[in-house]
Amino acid sequence: MPSRAHKWIGRAALLSFTLSILLIDEPSIVPASDQGTHVRRRLEDDQEGKDKTAEAQAALTALEKAMGVLDEIIAAHDANDRDVPSESQGVVSSEQAADEENTADESAVAQADGGVDQQQQETDSTPQDEATDSEQQTDQPSAQEETSQEIDTASENDSVKKAAAEALGEAKNNRRDPAPQPVQSREKYFGKVFPETNHVDMPFYLRNTFEPSPLKPEDRDIIFYWHIPKTAGGLVKNIMGMCFGLKRAEKLKEPASLEMVHNVIVNVDTSSPEGIAEAHELGLVDSNMVDFIFSSFVLSASSLFTPQHRGRAFTIIRHPIDAAASNFHARKVKHPELRGKYTLAQYAAKNFFIDNWVTRQLTGTLPHEELEQRHVDQAKNILAAKFFVGIYEHMDETMRQLKAFYKWKALEGQEYCVTDLIHGANPNFQKTYRGKPARGSNDWAFVAHVERWDMELYYFALEVFSKQGRIWNADEYSLIETSTGDKSY
Fold first, then answer.
1. Which of 298, 368, 437, 476 could form a disulfide with 181 if both were Cys (CB 3.0 to 4.6 A apart)?
2. Where is composition skewed (Polar residues) in this entry (predicted)?
3. Do the Cβ atoms of 89 and 74 come closer than 8 Å?
4. Roughly how many angstroms between the first and final C-alpha of the chain, as a whole number?
């Protein structure tokens, strides 16, 4: 029969090996001036990232099976010498207590949130809230260094017990909650109205990205900004309005109407299913009063467009792990009683966490429905055909490309407006920094597994973004307008 030291060394070695497999690199953030070149150079590395995401899924499955076998062996061993006190018995008790605490906390989270189905659909009410989602740049240790540190620790028996107990507890706590996702109605999750679609389920009246503009004088395209939560939606809305003078719909007072408020906002809500249905009844798009529609409900909002007023869409995508971390921190700020209750991985393991939000929204797949490869393939096709793609981590380059694509002209005296807002010259948009999970950490690896379909979609979006940069290159289209006669739109 193996000794207790051997048991814990075995566990630590298994967990160390698995964590070393799960080290997934994130795309680095490059200076705005070198976006076009550097993003293209990252694409080969991004392919490796996609492969590692698949490896992570397989490794986690193997880890669960291996831990189950180890648990049986240790349980049998403990039964033979139960009368002998040991540190490992204390560890088991701690794990059981933690499991009980997490079970009790789950109901508290659901009550505090006021409904789990609104988790990913919340949009921030002020630009300041969105502006706090900037990334903190930190140097992370390499995979080889972390693995080496784990092996060195395993040489000391006491340290092995402590490290193994913590790692095993994390792995157990972070297993996806076996309880099924709450069943949600299609109307509540996607909206009350849906667009006409073609034979491959693409919204019919969203114009293809590279399709020519309308030729008839009575026809007019309207910009559709599909806002993915935690991607600086408030900032982008204000750039479009303050820097380029674009008019939008936003309900500022009751009742909803086609009244123009402050010369830039039509008093109609497009951010909720009820508001979109009301916008239909009021004929918002046919009124010719707005330049862009802003909504997180991609399918429902797409139904607003008509043959005479088609939508020309764009969206901004963020790394799924960073987006999950931002949402996690925002919820803790909103509900202070939840601070310290969960790690990010434990939060993502709960059945109220809506995984792969972007893929689900594009394909009309409800949270309780299982995603497959065909869903992310469909999401890629829709994204490539119907959306001009921006990347949250490359906001300067994103705004430069959008400005060129839509041929936006800065208002008089607002030539530096975009860069000022992005980089915080306006105190309302001063950015703060919050931590995000380190690459290769337990949180990073587990969330990468849970969000594996959105991870694949994000890497695909990077490829689309790079291709756009080659078409609307920085040599011809600049972000800051000049008087030298270049193609600065």
1. 368
2. 86-96, 122-146
3. no
4. 75
Closest among 428, 225, 412, 442 to 312, alpha carbons compared: 225
Min mean pLDDT across 114-118, 165-169, 265-269 is at 114-118
CA–CA distance, 287 with 184 (Å, rounded to integer): 34
Residue 222 three-state SS: strand
Domains of the chain: 4-173 (no CATH), 192-340+354-428+453-471 (3.40.50)
Residue 404: how many CB atoms within 10 A of its CB? 22
| Amino acid found at 357 | W
Which residues, in sequence order, are CB contacts of 471 under 8 Å at separation 6+?
none
Q: How many CB atoms lie within 10 A of CB 84?
A: 9
334: three-class secondary structure by DSSP: helix
pLDDT tens per residue across span 328-355 = 998 888 888 777 888 899 999 988 899 9
Rounded CA gap, 146 and 124, in Å?
Answer: 37
Q: Which residues contact 215 (CB under 8 A, 6 or more apart)?
A: none
With CA atoms as reference, report the closest residue to 128 among 432, 335, 395, 434: 432
CB 401 within 8 A of CB 408: no
Beta bridge partners of 260: 266
Q: Are strands 265-266 and 222-226 parallel, antiparallel or unpaired?
A: unpaired
Tokens standing for residue 273: 């299913």
Which helix or strand (DSSP H or E) is residue 379 part of?
helix 373-386
Q: Name the percent of the chain in helix, strand, coil, to the closest 5.
A: 55, 5, 40
Identify the CA nearest to 26 among candidates 314, 323, 398. 323
* Phi, psi values for residue 455, rounded to 5°: -60, -45
Return the amino acid letter for 301.
A
Has this prediction a pTM greater than 0.85? Answer: no
Tell me: the pLDDT tens digits for 376-421? 999 999 999 999 999 999 999 999 999 999 999 999 999 999 999 9
Looking only at the bridges linking them, the beta strands covering 311-317 and 222-226 are parallel
Report how far residue 4's alpha carbon sits from residue 170's, in angstroms, rounded to the nearest whole number: 20
- Are 231 and 237 a contacting pair, CB within 8 Å? no
Residue type, 46: D
Q: In this structure, are strands 222-226 and 292-295 parallel, antiparallel, or unpaired?
A: parallel
Mean pLDDT, residues 171-178? 52
Which residues fall within 8 angstroms of residue 348, CB to CB, at 6 or more apart? 174, 324, 355, 446, 447, 450, 451
Q: Do residues 119 and 189 lie in contact, with contact meaning Cβ atoms separated by under 8 Å? A: no
Structure tokens at 146: 């972390």
- What stretches of 215-346 adopt beta strand conformation (E)? 222-226, 248-249, 260-261, 265-266, 292-295, 311-317
